[in-house]
Amino acid sequence: MRLRPALLALCLALPAGAAETVRFVTQEYVGYAQPNGKGYYLALLRTVFPKPDYDIQLRWAPFERSVQLVESRAADVTPGVSADRKGVLFSQLATDLDAFDVAVRKGAFPGWKGLPTLAGQRTVAQIGYGFDQYAPEVKMHYEEKSSLDGMLQMLVSSRVDAVLDYEEDMRQAAARLKLADRIEIRPSGISKPLYFAFADNDKGRKLKARFDAETARLKASGKLRQIFLGEIDKPRAFPG
Questions:
Q1: Can you point out the beta strands (E) in the chain?
Q2: Is 101-187 assigned to CATH 3.40.190.10?
Q3: What fold, for 18-96+192-237?
Q4: Cβ–Cβ contacts within 10 Å for residue 87, how many?
Q5: What is the pTM of this model?
Q6: Using CB atoms within 10 A as the burial measure, which of 42, 66, 80, 89 is most buried?
Q7: Which of 240, 187, 232 is nearest to 34 (CA)?
Q8: Which of the four pLDDT bands, split at 50, 70 and 90, describes residue 10?
């Protein structure tokens, strides 16, 4: 039987097995999520939600804005979130550890002993990072700012004593600003599990269920660690 033109057009417009859209939002992180498509978070996402069954729609936003978009269900998933956030669903497995670093002026704090060295010091981090809550017993004068470049410039001009962020991002920013010879980067000695956060709705629960099943399989086989180390030369940031 021949199909009428209008019916044929409708059939062609509704292909069977159309890809499910995954709205992924993240901040740029060196080694984790980069505009060139490289990074651990992007590699993991493509492994769990492969083509042609899924269509990943990538959006870039600062960390706090990324979490807010998932909380408001304007996005489906964002990575690198600690489990103390409210209003989202967390992956069952931690995907990495928040092993952040500290930039200080060259020659400062010669007796470095990790984050406790910064007690009483002026410290800054990006909005939403909440690093002061990782070790609340260390009483820093802590503030959050919107620009890593601006914070590093504050550091070298002695307006703050330390910048809390990630080594790779700080080294890249310092090189761009021609400040690399004026700062030193030290390990904080603190780490905290991080998770993928999903929207708290039916779609988010469906995506989370697949993510949980696939990451459990990847971890059991050793492939999850392989994906991580293929992108990140920082074994201390992998959770077990």
A1: 20-26, 54-60, 77-81, 88-90, 96-97, 101-105, 122-126, 141-145, 162-165, 183-187, 193-199
A2: yes
A3: D-Maltodextrin-Binding Protein; domain 2 (3.40.190)
A4: 13
A5: 0.79
A6: 66
A7: 232
A8: very low
